[in-house]
Amino acid sequence: MKTLYLVRHAKSSWAFSMSDHDRPLGPRGRRDLKKLSKFTSEQIPAPDLIITSTASRALYTALHFADHWNYPEEKIITDRRLFHASTGDIQKLLHEHHQENTLAIFGHNPGFTDFNNQMSHDPIDNIPTCGIMGIGFEIDSWRQFGQKRGKRLFFHAPKLLV
């Protein structure tokens, strides 16, 4: 079985006049990230590989989760294709990482919600900012990804935590 963690970046700030790609996290995003990454590290095993969008808010989110998982920062892969990726973009990326059993990818909506709804048996209206969805696929290699739909293993978001 292969496991995928889809992690939407934490809430970004609109207070700065800069490109969408460079927007940092806002105060709520930093607060939610601190809470959810700590909870996640206590409940969910670290992935074998972390891949993140190059956007500032996604990269910062990935770095924070990596810290809590004791995942080495230098092993994080940045991939610009995850910046506003479509389901097809994500599928191509997964096909490239056939060795790892558990992948965590950090990116954006609407691509992550669309991906979940097309590739798993458990649709959702929206993966909120700083939300993490775990999906299990009954496949032996990520090269087989897309042949079978996955099953939701967990879903966590800041507003769902007590």
What is the overall number of helices?
4
CATH superfamily (homologous) name: Phosphoglycerate mutase-like
Structural class call reads alpha/beta
Query: How is the main sheet built?
Result: 6 strands, mixed
Shape: globular
Q: What percent strand?
A: 15-25%
What's the count of strands? 6
The separation of the N and C termini measures 31 Å
Question: Regions with pLDDT < 50 over 5+ consecutive residues?
Answer: none
Helix content: 25-40%
The whole-number mean of residue pLDDT values reads 94
CATH class: Alpha Beta
How many domains, as an integer?
A: 1
CATH architecture title = 3-Layer(aba) Sandwich
Taking all Cα atoms into account, the compactness measure Rg is 15 Å
Strand order of the largest sheet: 3-2-4-1-5-6
- The CATH topology name reads Rossmann fold
Summarize the helices and strands and which ones pair or pack.
Blueprint lengths: L1 E7 L18 H17 L5 E4 L3 H14 L7 E2 L8 H9 L6 E6 L3 H9 L12 E6 L13 E6 L6
Parallel strand pairs: 1-4, 2-3, 2-4
Antiparallel strand pairs: 1-5, 5-6
Helix pairs in contact: 1-2
Which features does this protein show?
single chain; 162 residues; alpha/beta; Rossmann fold; 6-stranded mixed beta sheet; 6 strands
